[in-house]
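Re: weekly structure request thread

Next one in the queue (391 aa):
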Amino acid sequence: MRTSGTSPDVVVVGAGIVGAAVAWRAVGAGLTVTLLDPRPGDGATHAAAGMLAPVSESWFGESALARLGMAGLAAWPRFAADLRRATGLDTGLREAGTLVAAYDADDVAQLRRWLALHAELGLEPTELTGTSARRREPLLGHRVAGAAWVPGDHVADPRATHAALDVALHAQPGAAVVRHAALRLERDRGAVVGVHDDAGTLHRAGAVVLAAGWRSAGLADVPVRPVRGQTLRLDAPPGTAPQHVVRGRVQGRPVYVVPRQPGTGSGPGTTPEHREVVIGATSEEGPDDRRPSAGGVFALLRDARALVPALDEAAFVEATLRARPATPDNLPLVGPSATPGLHLATGHHRGGVLLAPLTADAVVAGLTGAALPAALADAAPDRFAPVLEGA
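Done, posted below.
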């Protein structure tokens, strides 16, 4: 074993969008940081569509998650603006609203239950007829029976955001990105004081932030498990991609269609008018084997084109499967743990992109001794204290 030549204030384990955001904000707060990950951004961030959709995502029994999501959404504009100032790069943030579609009568009934729930929570969707929805989004399929408009649910591009974070971190003298995997935590008299990597190096630090997604459970006794999800990417020529995010249900099955800005297409024959379109997402318990299934690809294409038939003309570019990190109550674990020196930024499940800026601010607050944002009270790791004390 060898010890790294530096001893930073913080080692962040995991360089997805959450870990990279934590590291960047920590350096901005005057801390020195080592970010440890063999393939930064290649986990759940790589598959994510980037919907910033706390209203569209909320469901019965998840009012705490909805509140957290609204706070996460509110943190995004400043985060995106700061990142653009630091790098000149775009995060793909588009504040254009979301159309929630219901394909048949049963889906409309489910949509109205959802609207009634949101009225109780004081949220903002407005019901639309199929005809009025098609006036807002002309590419919506003619068999779509109903819809709702959610003006405050937006979208960002996780891959573009991560690329900007990578540039920002490499420009900071207080940040070091080490492309090795964490093997185990170093402990001293009950406290976490560093991380061993797979090259045999011990990275000592004043604090360790565990932001390794579902792999966090292999490093500490945190209740996080992998939930597989696959997304598809298309290259859409002009006139085949919707102008807004379209999500909804097709005979009870959830699906979403996320268009990027013009100029984001890829592959032979693309022009500045082509757009990337992301379709997603499946959800199933299981290991992250990164092998998209034929059935999952078929189901996503079938349901996406039921909502937006013009997608038939788009080129198929990519199918991506990654596992999201989920907790027993679907809320993340953010902040200081019951183990001295160990801070958590994991368990975000479907909300990693949405909650990355808020998580980064909260973790840095915990590292510097400031008060954590009140919005993250429901995500405090001490709700699982009996588990975490064994870390």
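Residues 233 and 278 are 5 Å apart (CA to CA). Residues 63-87 form the longest helix (25 residues).
Next request, please.
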